[in-house]
Write a structure and sequence with these properties.
45% strand, 1 helix, 18% helix, alpha+beta, 76 residues, 4 strands
Length: 76
């Protein structure tokens, strides 16, 4: 089971920050993560989820930082 903590889209890919649960009965560190995943549409209702890593890199990281700064705006 996974829990989506945050998401944003960039160049047709939806990036999701997820916490992952391993479901092992004696695991004391659940949930694990957070880990980034890319959700890619394959046409129609078909989609695939790809592991990106613990951090975003390159232009994706720059876009995420830019959108995060814009969403931090608060009305006076």
């Amino acid at each position: 089971m996974n829990r989506i903590v945050e998401r944003f889209s960039f160049r047709g890919v939806e990036y999701q920050l997820r916490l992952t649960f391993c479901n092992k009965p004696k695991c004391k560190s659940c949930p694990h993560g957070p880990y980034w995943y890319g959700l890619i549409s394959l046409g129609g209702a078909r989609q695939t989820l790809r592991y990106v890593g613990r951090t975003l890199r390159g232009p994706v990281a720059e876009e995420y930082a830019r959108t995060a700064k814009e969403s931090d705006w608060r009305a006076p």
